[in-house]
């Protein structure tokens, strides 16, 4: 299976590289049947043995998530010490790139398009927080992880599965995890949503 996925990405060559997420690089994959997918090659150095167990559980949980404003996980391959995640391909770049780097006038986001992106993203977060059981905490929510299709519909990506049960809320563990991840990945000066022991959100 790994060999066939390597073929679709020309052995994960630089020319097929389309992005880099919290756990590894993402490559565009061209399959022989004409299907285009995105393959994330997990950086094993970032996973301890305990984290690998949690990761496998997260993959199992993520495979069951389905929402029109979320990138769907289509498959997972684990062979020869490698972990590969196969996602649907969303080919119009990220919201971050569209807002910051687009020089093509046809790709300028109108206010109507921005409202559509905001509403679609909010619906995806509502699905993770309110519909999923157990609830899912994204843990890496930012404009670079909101992908846009050709109609400028948002597709949230790079979410990390996390149980948000009542015990975690009562002890404030979810808030602490979110705060630690934000500081570890993005540095200082960013707003972090933290849950206090009563489950109320505050900004820090």
Automatic annotation (TrEMBL):
Ranges of Basic and acidic residues composition bias in the record:
164-186
Where the record annotates domain Protein kinase, the positions are 12-204
CC terms in the record's Gene Ontology section: membrane
Matching Pfam families? Pkinase
Superkingdom per UniProt: Eukaryota
Regarding the membrane, this protein is recorded as: Single-pass type I membrane protein
Q: Where in the cell is it found?
A: Membrane
Name a GO molecular-function annotation: protein kinase activity
Q: Which UniProt keywords apply?
A: Kinase, Membrane, Transferase, Transmembrane, Transmembrane helix
Write down what this protein is called.
Tyrosine-protein kinase
Keyword Iron among record annotations: no
Name where it mostly resides. Answer: membrane
Q: Where is this region: Disordered?
A: 162-204
């Amino acid at each position: 299976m790994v060999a066939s996925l390597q073929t679709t990405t020309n052995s994960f060559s630089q020319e097929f590289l389309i992005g880099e997420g919290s756990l590894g690089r993402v490559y565009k994959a061209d399959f022989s049947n004409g299907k285009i997918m995105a393959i994330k090659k997990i950086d094993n150095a970032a996973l301890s043995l305990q984290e690998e167990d949690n990761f496998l559980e997260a993959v199992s949980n993520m495979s069951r998530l389905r929402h029109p404003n979320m990138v769907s996980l289509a498959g997972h391959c684990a062979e020869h010490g490698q972990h590969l995640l196969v996602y649907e391909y969303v080919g119009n770049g990220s919201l971050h790139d569209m807002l910051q780097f687009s020089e093509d006038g046809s790709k300028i986001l109108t206010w109507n398009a921005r409202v559509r992106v905001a509403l679609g993203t909010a619906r995806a977060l509502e699905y993770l927080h309110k519909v999923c059981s157990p609830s899912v905490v994204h843990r890496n929510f930012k404009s670079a992880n909101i992908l846009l299709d050709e109609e400028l519909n948002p597709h949230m990506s790079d979410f990390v599965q996390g149980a948000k049960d009542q015990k975690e809320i009562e002890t404030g563990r979810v808030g602490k995890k979110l705060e630690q991840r934000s500081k570890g990945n993005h540095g200082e000066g960013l707003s972090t949503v933290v849950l206090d022991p009563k489950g109320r959100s505050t900004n820090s």
